[in-house]
Amino acid sequence: MGQFTLLIAALLASTTLIQCGEYDFTVEVPPGKFQCFFQPVDLAKHKTLEVDYQVIDGGDLNINFMILHGANILKQDQLKVDGSHRIELNQPGDYQVCFDNSFSYQFEKGCVL
Predict the structure, then answer these.
(1) Which residue in 10, 18, 28, 50 has the fewest CB atoms around it within 10 Å?
(2) How far apart are the C-alpha atoms of 35 and 42, rounded to whole Å?
(3) Average model confidence (pLDDT) across the chain
(4) Which of 90, 86, 67 is nearest to 77 (CA)?
(5) Are 39 and 66 a contacting pair, CB within 8 Å?
(6) Which keywords are on file for this protein (predicted)?
């Protein structure tokens, strides 16, 4: 099959009473790699973090997924086709949304955030 593309449709939203932001991204996660994307959080503006993702193309249609704050894993999925997570924010700083394709040695995966 040659190069493999796994597309993940995801919506990253920081929701508050004051401000709401929604972001859509498309990224590629190479085989054997782990990639994270950062969402800065200001508690004066952000009350929740919501992430939805879906694998829409390629291979077994699965990926490992995590949301982290510092070294703390807040949410985690393993070998999932899709997921939806909502976190009540109680600490400011950079939150990480990570896709792990380290289990694949052959296929690159495209992700839409």
Answers:
(1) 18
(2) 23
(3) 79
(4) 67
(5) no
(6) Membrane, Signal, Transmembrane, Transmembrane helix
Q: Does the predicted model carry a pTM greater than 0.85?
A: no
- Taking alpha carbons only, the member of 20, 10, 63, 14 closest to residue 39 is 14
Residue 86 carries which side chain, given as an amino acid letter? R
What are the boundaries of each domain within the chain? Answer: 7-112
Q: In angstroms, rounded to a whole number, what is the distance separating the alpha carbons of residues 98 and 30?
A: 13
Nearest to 48 by CA among 8, 85, 98: 85
Class of domain 7-112: mainly beta
Whether 41 contacts 89, CB under 8 Å: yes
